[in-house]
Structure formats: structure tokens, C-alpha cells
Design brief:
Blueprint (H helix, E strand, L loop, with lengths): L3 E4 L2 E4 L6 H7 L4 E4 L12 H10 L3 E4 L9 H13 L4 E4 L4 H10 L6 H10 L8 H5 L11 E8 L3 H13 L5 E4 L4 E3 L4 H5 L9 E3 L8 E4 L3 E5 L4 E4 L4 E9 L4 E2 L7 H4 L5 E2 L7 H10 L3 E7 L9 H16 L5 E7 L11 H10 L3 E4 L1 E7 L4 E6 L7 E6 L2 E3 L4 E2 L2 H4 L25 E3 L12 H19 L6 E2 L4 E8 L2 E7 L21 H18 L11 E2 L6
Parallel strand pairs: 2-5, 3-4, 3-5, 6-7, 6-13, 7-10, 13-24, 15-22, 16-17, 16-22, 17-18
Antiparallel strand pairs: 1-2, 8-9, 11-12, 12-13, 14-23, 19-20, 20-21, 25-28, 26-27
Keywords: Plasmid, Transferase
InterPro entries: BLH_phosphatase-like, FAD/NAD-bd_sf, FAD/NAD-binding_dom, Prot-tyrosine_phosphatase-like, Sulphide_quinone_reductase
Pfam family, one: Pyr_redox_2
Length: about 550
């Protein structure tokens, strides 16, 4: 028999027989709820038959029949009451388990976040997105249909969201566009590496969100709770509903600080820092500039992460600072990488290795950070090398730069838009959703196999804008994204290895080799990173000026 755990106290499943009671009793269940009306199916045992078998085994039984597709608020309240009065754990069943799961979801609407309810039910094998609006509304059926409607709705006002809104407006000024994002501040995240290296001030990387929303675009300052793609609707926190003709999804990704035991309690203290957070990047430079001896750990989690080179950028800039202060020989630099290579595009590795050697850094591959004890100044790693058993090691540190594990946001992972791994499922060339043809995605949240960088979003935004315009005119997509990504690897203050590549690790340089050889450290690349890229970001990309980012025509092969 099937049983799927929703909580420690409740599991659900499809129709059971009297013979299954022995299995449930042996598994420790103490009560059963039947949510299936009698006589739904010719081979269905009546509820009283199950009740007698349950009683014989000392299990309590409750009959709460629900007609398919007609789960009422009263049903959910009765189910919730049963869970509080019956001895647990409880097993609830109907024909497939869906009605029982729906009842639980609605009964928990006022006690658990919507994302948690959707995540638990999805993990159990049941998709509750069809009642997400009711869950968001406290378990009650909303009486309204929509609070607002737009031609184009964009979820996320990060680099990708604002860039695509501006690119669309540049193509047609009268488009009715809304951007949904709850944040007050927009961050230029590529600058945080420079903050952690003592080069930029934090304020250089932040602007108010309101100052960046394109003219004529409606900013809905709210969080998304769920998607109803079948109804062209988005549910916001508080159960407000926004409808769209076309949707662009680009909320970025989630930094899972809680995924490393003990990390949240010690961040920003005890020598524990990260350039992946605005308020922590200055602490990185504080630690680096004051450190005279000891061990410095730099970690990299499993892929995918935003800016795959950022973990080692922190290491190089720190090593350079210690080298120039003459204390490098007293500092033990350890790079703890969950992956098996220094950088995913091999053409850039030789230049990087010269700096690994210059800073006498030890490369530890297949080392995944799992715990940090700030007070004891120890870090614990799982070491999983190919064809060997996993080992756990604990290492002392004086300073540790942590890069957290990263996933799609919860409201994306549990949505109908996500693939099995939780990322928005798109065609990698057109960036159109594979199932819903009026939805596109770009930036870190979608599943195309490209590097998750701001430079990638800069190329993706015009592609999405161009293909939406084609769709508005009733035409097929005619622009493609080639997987371009860029990672300016800050190997020392004043020099950068400018990694530029497309799908499959194919090199994709923006400049001729005589002007800027990206496989070698150059001052020209540093000038680009320090002086040119920030204004290009603020004044070009976010304003719809597609400098060196014009969309490429879709090839027959891509179609």
C-alpha cells in the first residue's frame, strides 16, 4: 500500500482495504480518516468495513467524505478538528490521496506559509497549486477574480527584470507592463567582490528600487505566493491576484544560509564572512586587512551558484592584499571546493593556476562545507571523492569566506513552472517556457545550462524582449540566446582574467585578442571591471540600451 508523509503526525494515500490495516498498525499509526464517499467505485470497500478492521487493531476511525472537486471550508475545518482530537500519527485516504492532501493544505492555511504547504505536498507527490489561491486566502475561496491585469507581468526587479522591462519599453512605449518585487533596494551584486577586496564602497553597489523602475512601468511592491499558469494569474501574498497576457519570470535565486549548520548564528562574527551579502562584504575586507597570520578558508558549494568564479575571486584579492603587505608567508590559504575543477572552462585554468601558486593556496576538491562553529573556529566538510566513501573532516580557521548553497526560490520550486530540480523550465535558445507558451524566463532562476552571471542576463534580456514582441505580432520567435556568460576573475588588484564563454564552454570574447586577451591577466580587463561595467549596468543595461548585447537571429538548428 502507498503512504506519503506530510508531517510526522499525518500521512496520506490512496484507497486502502481491510487487509492494509495490519500494515498501518505495524507502522505505528493510531488513527485513520476516510475522505472518500462510499460507492464511488465498483471495487471500493465501504468505510464501515475499514472502520471495523481498524477497531479490531485498536485504531480510531473517522469518516469525513468529500466529493471530488468540492472540498468546502467546512470540510477543511472538520478535518483539522479530527487531527487535533484523534491520536496520532494519522493516516488519511481517498481514491488517490489528493482530497486528503487538499483538506490538510486548507486546514493549515493560517498556520504555515504557503510555500511550505506547497513544498510538503509536492514532496509527497501531490500538486496543490490548483488550490494555492484558497490557501493564500486563509483556506477560504476568494470572491474576486483579479485585482489587476497587464499585457506583460515581470516577476523580479533584479538585473534581468528591469533590463527586460526597459528593453520592451524601448521597442514599444505603450506596452502595459508591471514588475512585481517586494524589495526597496536594488543591488549591483557583481560589485560585492570589489567591496570585499577594499576597492568599492558598499554604497556604490546599491540604489533605491523606485529610481530604477522604467518610466511607464507599474511597480507592484509585493511578494509572489504562487502561480496559476492555466489561468494566466499570479497570486501575491495576501491573496491579491494579478493577471497577465504574457509573463516573464526572473526573481533570481535563493541563498540557502541555513543549509550549512551553525552558519547563520556566526555570520559577520568570529572571522566568518561572505561577499554574497551586501552587509557582510565590508567585513571580508576588515578581516583581510587586519589578518597577519593564521589559516584562511575559502569555500565553494555544489553548482549551480551565481557567478561561479566569485568564491575564488575572494581568495585571489585576499592573497594579493597579504602578498603586498608582506604577510602572505604566514597565512595558510585553503580553497575548499565541492566540485572537482578550479574553473569549468579549461582555457582559463592555466592563468588561474599561476596565481594559485603565487599565493601558495592549497586546492581541496570535493570538499563540501556542511557546518561552521564560529566560537570554536572550526569548519566541517564532507569529502566525496570519486570512487571513495564519503568522509567528514573538521578544519580550524582564523578566517573563513563562505559561499552558501543556492537554489531556486521556494515559490518557484513548488510551482508548475519548475522542472524536476526546481528551476524554471525553458528552451535554452528562445528562453520560452517549454509548457506554457506565454511565459519566458531569464537570469539565475531558469534552467538553461549557462553561467549565472549579470553578464548573462545582459544578453538574455534583449532576446526575451525581442521574442515577446514577435509573439505580440503573432509571429514565431526569431531571437536566440547563445549561452553567453562572463566572469571577470580578479586575480590581483589591477589585473583580471576576463572569462567569456557560451554554451558548452565555447570561448566567446567580446574584444579582439590584440586588444584584450581574456585567457591572460590584463590591466585592460581590470579597467573594464572597475570603471566601465558599473555605469554600463546602471545607465545602459537597466535603461534598455543594448550595447554589445543585440539579440542574435534564431538559427534553423535552434528551432
Amino acid at each position: 500500500m502507498e503512504k506519503h508523509e506530510l508531517t510526522r503526525g499525518l500521512s496520506v494515500g490512496p484507497q486502502i482495504t481491510a487487509e492494509d490495516i495490519d500494515t498501518l498498525a505495524a507502522a505505528g499509526f493510531r488513527s485513520i480518516i476516510c475522505n472518500r464517499p462510499d460507492a464511488e467505485g465498483a471495487d471500493q470497500p465501504n468505510h464501515d468495513e475499514i472502520a471495523r478492521a481498524a477497531s479490531a487493531k485498536g485504531l480510531e476511525f473517522r469518516y469525513i467524505p468529500v466529493t471530488p472537486g468540492m472540498v468546502t471550508e467546512a470540510d477543511a475545518e472538520q478535518f483539522a478538528s479530527a487531527l487535533t482530537t484523534l491520536p496520532g500519527p494519522t493516516f488519511a485516504y481517498c481514491r488517490t490521496g489528493t482530497r486528503s492532501t487538499t483538506l490538510w493544505s486548507l486546514s493549515q492555511a493560517n498556520d504555515r506559509p504557503l510555500t511550505e504547504i506547497l513544498a510538503r505536498t509536492k514532496a509527497a507527490g501531490y500538486d496543490m497549486n490548483g488550490v494555492a489561491r484558497r490557501i493564500a486566502n486563509g483556506g477560504k475561496t476568494p470572491t474576486d477574480t483579479a485585482d489587476a491585469k497587464f499585457q506583460i507581468v515581470i516577476v523580479g526587479a533584479g538585473a534581468g527584470g528591469i533590463a527586460v522591462a526597459s528593453s520592451l519599453k524601448a521597442r514599444r512605449a505603450d506596452l502595459e507592463i508591471a514588475i512585481i518585487d517586494p524589495a526597496d533596494i536594488h543591488y549591483y551584486q557583481p560589485g560585492w567582490t570589489m567591496v570585499g577586496g577594499g576597492i568599492f564602497e558598499p554604497a556604490q553597489t546599491a540604489k533605491t528600487m523606485g529610481s530604477l523602475i522604467p518610466h511607464g512601468v507599474k511597480w507592484i511592491k509585493a511578494a509572489v505566493a504562487a502561480f496559476e499558469p492555466e489561468n494566466n494569474a499570479i497570486i501575491l501574498d495576501g491573496c491579491r491576484v494579478v493577471k497577465y497576457d504574457r509573463l516573464v519570470v526572473c526573481p533570481g535565486l535563493k541563498l540557502d544560509w541555513a543549509g550549512i549548520e551553525g552558519l547563520e548564528e556566526t555570520l559577520g562574527r568570529n572571522g566568518v564572512t561572505s561577499n554574497y551579502r551586501y552587509d557582510l562584504a565590508p567585513y571580508t575586507w576588515q578581516l583581510v586587512s587586519s589578518m597577519k597570520e593564521g589559516r584562511a578558508l575559502f569555500t565553494q558549494p555544489p553548482m549551480p551558484i551565481k557567478c561561479a568564479g566569485a568564491p575564488q575571486k575572494a581568495m585571489y584579492l585576499s592573497g594579493d592584499a597579504w602578498f603586498k603587505r608582506g604577510v602572505l608567508n604566514k597565512i595558510d590559504i585553503q580553497f575548499m571546493n565541492a566540485g572537482g575543477v578550479l574553473f569549468g572552462v579549461k582555457d582559463y585554468v592555466p592563468a588561474l593556476m599561476k596565481y594559485v601558486e603565487k599565493y601558495d593556496a592549497t586546492l581541496n576538491f570535493f570538499h563540501k562545507l556542511v557546518a561552521v562553529d564560529g566560537q570554536a573556529k572550526t569548519a566541517t566538510f564532507e569529502v566525496t571523492k570519486p570512487e571513495t566513501e564519503t568522509q567528514t573532516i573538521t578544519t580550524e580557521f582564523d578566517m573563513i569566506h563562505v559561499v552558501p548553497p543556492q537554489t531556486a526560490p521556494d515559490f518557484i520550486r513548488v510551482s508548475p513552472l519548475a522542472d524536476a530540480a526546481g528551476w524554471v523550465d525553458v528552451d535554452q535558445a528562445t528562453l520560452r517556457h517549454k509548457t506554457y507558451d506565454n511565459i519566458w524566463s531569464l537570469g539565475d532562476v531558469m534552467n538553461a545550462p549557462n553561467a549565472k552571471t549579470a553578464a548573462a542576463a545582459r544578453k538574455q534580456a534583449p532576446t526575451v524582449a525581442e521574442n515577446i514582441m514577435s509573439d505580440l505580432m503573432g509571429k514565431s520567435a526569431h531571437a536566440q540566446y547563445d549561452g553567453y556568460g562572463s566572469c571577470p576573475l580578479t586575480v590581483e588588484r589591477g589585473k583580471i582574467v576576463l572569462a567569456e564563454f557560451a554554451y558548452g564552454g565555447v570561448l566567446k570574447p567580446s574584444f579582439p585578442k590584440w586588444l584584450l586577451d581574456g585567457t591572460q591577466p590584463t590591466r585592460a580587463a581590470w579597467f573594464l571591471k572597475e570603471k566601465l561595467l558599473p555605469p554600463i549596468y546602471w545607465k545602459a543595461m537597466l535603461r534598455g540600451h543594448e550595447w554589445m548585447a543585440k539579440p542574435e537571429p534564431l538559427s534553423a538548428k535552434s528551432e
